[in-house]
Amino acid sequence: MNNQRIVFTAPGVAELVDCPMPEVGANDVRVRVAVSSISSGTERANVSGDPNISYASTDQTVRFPRYGGYSTSGIVDAVGANVKSVKPGDRVAMSWTTHCRTVTVNENNVYLLPDSISFEAGALIHIATFPLAAIRKCRVEIGESAIVMGQGVLGLIAIQLLRAAGAVPIIAADPNPTCREKALKFGADYALDPFAPDFAATVKSLTRGGVKAAIEVTGNGKALDNVLDCMARFGRVALLGCTRHSDFTIDYYRKVHGPGITLIGAHTNARPQHESSNGWWTQRDDALALIALSERGRIDLGSMVEDTCRPEDAPEVYKRLTNSPSFPITQFNWS
Questions:
Q1: What are phi and psi for residue 132, nearest 5 degrees?
Q2: How far is 93 from 70, CA to CA, in rounded Å?
Q3: Which pTM value belongs to this model?
Q4: What is the C-alpha to C-alpha distance for residues 205 and 220, in angstroms, rounded to an integer?
Q5: What pLDDT sits at residue 324?
Q6: C-alpha closest to that of 6 among 309, 329, 312, 305
């Protein structure tokens, strides 16, 4: 059986190449991928050659090849001797994969997908664990106000999850009017332009003095500075977007220190490996929670997909991603 994967071979260049069929270890699951999702922020950084890929490394040497596609779904092809949770033929969602026709992943990163959940929705489960973890860390309570800065895939999922969590009102912020319309479709109560001169004043008016919890998705220093102007005293701000560059300043004394604002690092790897607790769930438990929410109709991930492409279209798809600041929620269909 032939195998193929999408590889970033040079800055701005993506290719579909042949690759070996992966072996199956004792704790592994081999899956024939049905759908893989593009995580636009991370994959734009990868394909463009951004040196700030890993927060854990000071080495900024740009090396290729690079890979994307860590959120996928498919059908189990084979399992290792120790695997108990899934079997060949099962429909699954997966974490930490790549854009590849057949992948092998550790059993802990494979989640049984009910028949009622589409492969398109399943391929967004792993990505959805990112905003879910950020919301948990903010300890959002029923009736608290919330704002989401940036309405790409992570921001739109955050809107749905905040609505399921009982936040009210939910404010979406994005300079693109099309993105603001989508935010309203997926559950935002208000959608505002963060570049409007009265942005902060409007948010404070809508939230009776300031927002309680903020999910900052853009990774842009100016967006963080703007949302701090919107916060209530003792508000919490989750830094979900990857602020890869530090070329900005914030008046920490007046905007953070004085009003008692909590800034929360919300990188997806900043979570426990075992034993979920209040506000701090493991990746696997968050994925299973999202599947349960999807199965019962509390959230609808599949309806968010705007564009479906063939893997053979990867060179053109990544050219668009590299050159477009506003990229639609896009998936590859491998079947």
A1: -60, -45
A2: 11
A3: 0.95
A4: 24
A5: 85
A6: 312
Please list the alpha-helical segments (H only) found in the chain: 40-48, 119-122, 125-137, 153-165, 177-185, 199-206, 221-228, 252, 283-295, 314-323
Cα 131 from Cα 108, distance rounded (Å) = 20
Tally the C-alpha atoms within 13 A of residue 16's C-alpha that lie toward its C-beta: 17
Structure tokens, 96 = 């930490």
Q: How far is CA 283 from the centre of its chain?
A: 12
Q: What is the pLDDT of residues 181-230, one digit of tens each?
A: 999 999 999 999 999 999 999 999 999 999 999 999 998 999 999 999 99
pLDDT at 281 over 90: yes
Is the pLDDT confidence value at 1 over 70?
no
CB-based contacts of 14: which residues, under 8 Å, 6+ apart? 6, 7, 8, 47, 314, 315, 317, 318
Task: Let me know: does 260 contact 237? Beta carbons within 8 Å.
Answer: no
Q: Which residues partner with 138 through β-bridges? A: none
pLDDT band, very low/low/confident/very high, at 55 (cuts 50, 70, 90): low
Evaluate if residue 58 carries a pLDDT over 80. Answer: no
**Residue 5: pLDDT band with limits 50, 70, 90:** very high
What are residue 228's phi and psi, to 5 degrees? -65, -30
Q: Kindly state the tokens that stand for 64.
A: 């290729």
Q: How far is CA 181 from CA 164, 185, 189, 211, 237, in A?
A: 19, 6, 11, 21, 24
